Amino acid sequence: MAEKIRLLSSVIGSEQVPAHLARSVIEERLRSAIVDGRLPPGTALRQQEIAGLFGVSRMPVREALRQLEAQSLLQVVMHKGAVVAPLIGEDAVDTYALRVLLESEALRQSIPLLEADDIARARGYIQELESETRHAEIGRLNRLFHMTLYSKAHNQKLLRMIEIELNEEERFLRFHLSSMGLGKLTQDDHNALVNAASDKRVDEAVNVLEEHLNNGARAIRKYLDSQRLSM
User: Where is each HTH gntR-type domain found (predicted)?
Assistant: First the structure.
């Protein structure tokens, strides 16, 4: 038990945290460790152990774990409690189909309100993606690019739902880009998407986005099929 707590401490830290900041600090520490792989899938997270590391009650820890569960980063498993979720599930292709619906609507709402600064920011992420080779950064930049184009959508709940799915994709991309055989990702779709958004060509932008996401779904399906065959 002591060894497990030392390992957890080395991953998320251990210091006294003010009570009013505890939930947000613990959530961010755990989220970062899950997303970058320091807490691998299947790792059990005990409320009392985390509370002890930060010198707080179990309440802010419980709230942080609930937030991470809502982001699909944790699952509650019988007899184990909260555990780090798998990188990708069998419902991944269905998730992409849902993303097409959600993100197309967000893009339609956002494009008419996008300003020059938004377009410039999106183009900046594309430039970084062009030269980036670290899978962790590719996942992060991909998420930021898409959220920039959706950022002016007026439906905030819609944006929160989309960000949850993009967080899940970011985490997956960090670990499986090479094993999926994707190599360096082309930015053709991203360039076409931002060009259409810049010119306020909403229907064209939505068509590009839908094809972009459908390509992702096909890549995921191919990867999952190959994993089953190798088992």
Answer: 20-87
What are the tens digits of pLDDT across the range 96-142?
888 999 999 999 999 999 999 999 999 999 999 999 887 778 888 98
The 3-state secondary structure of the chain, one letter per residue: CHHHHHHHHHHHCCCCCCHHHHHHHHHHHHHHHHHCCCCCCCCEECHHHHHHHHCCCHHHHHHHHHHHHHCCCEEEECCCEEEECCCCCCCHHHHHHHHHHHHHHHHHHHHHHCCHHHHHHHHHHHHHHHHCCCHHHHHHHHHHHHHHHHCCCCCHHHHHHHHHHHHHHHHHHHHHCCCCCCCCCCCHHHHHHHHHHHCCCHHHHHHHHHHHHHHHHHHHHHHHHHHHHHC
CATH second-level architecture of 92-230?
Answer: Up-down Bundle (1.20)
Residue spans in the chain of domains classed CATH 1.20.120.530: 92-230
